[in-house]
Design brief:
This protein has helices spanning 11-21, 25-34, 43-60, 64-77, 95-106, 112-128, 138-149, 154-178. It is mainly α and 209 residues long. Helix 3 packs across helix 4 (64-77). The longest helix has 25 residues, at 154-178.
């Protein structure tokens, strides 16, 4: 299962807000699932990248490094985010990724597609410079393993990732329903609008309205 990140992932706030306003299990679960996409769960995007890069490498008889350079340069030219890299919580390394790659290594599932993804990651970190190491996140790791298993492509990756989110999401919904907070809200510390303004000292409320 993908580790539950509480209010960090979009699916948990959506599910809990729905359960808070409409205390029913299924609508809350549906709300959480509807947030799954490019920014929350994106193994399908990583899987597409791996398959496209691997096809390019084979078609043009490129090395891993040469393919990685082509891929990273193309993403940077188009100013697109490379899927599967980085995480707002796991800044240095993703413990889920480390564990998954450890199991994959033990099972003999670190093949050419994973090596190519590693090369792309290495090239990406080199291009951003300053010794930064943006880790491979769990979406990228899942895409690698599923690519090696050849289970059927990006949609299978998305399906498995969605199932992985369900246990944590369902536990959060049950907690919300059993310990209800009507009209749950997020703290306004991230508010970026107009700063609080005080009323004029001579202000008098019109009690007739």
């Amino acid at each position: 299962c993908i580790v539950d990140h509480q209010m960090v992932s979009a699916n948990i706030p959506a599910a809990r807000f729905t359960a808070s306003g409409n205390p029913q299990f299924i609508p809350a679960l549906a709300s959480g699932i509807l947030t799954i996409g490019a920014n929350t769960v994106s193994p399908a995007l990583s899987a597409e990248l791996i398959e496209d890069a691997y096809a390019l490498m084979k078609k043009e008889h490129l090395t891993f490094d040469a393919t990685a350079q082509r891929v990273v340069a193309d993403y940077r030219r188009r100013k697109k985010r490379i899927p599967g890299f980085g995480h707002p919580t796991h800044r240095e390394w993703d413990p889920r990724t480390v564990k998954l790659f450890k199991v994959a290594r033990e099972m003999g599932l670190l093949g050419e597609k994973t090596r190519l993804y590693f090369a792309i990651h290495k090239e990406f970190c080199k291009t951003i410079g300053k010794g930064k190491n943006i880790p491979i996140n769990i979406d990228g790791a899942m895409a690698c393993v599923e690519a090696e298993l050849n289970w059927g492509g990006p949609l299978i990756s998305l399906a498995i990732a969605t199932m992985s989110f369900l246990p944590g999401m369902m536990a959060q919904i049950i907690e919300e329903l059993e310990n209800p907070i009507p009209l749950r809200y997020i703290h306004d510390s991230d508010y970026v609008g107009v700063a609080p303004r005080a009323l004029p000292k001579d202000f008098k409320r019109d009690e007739s309205q």
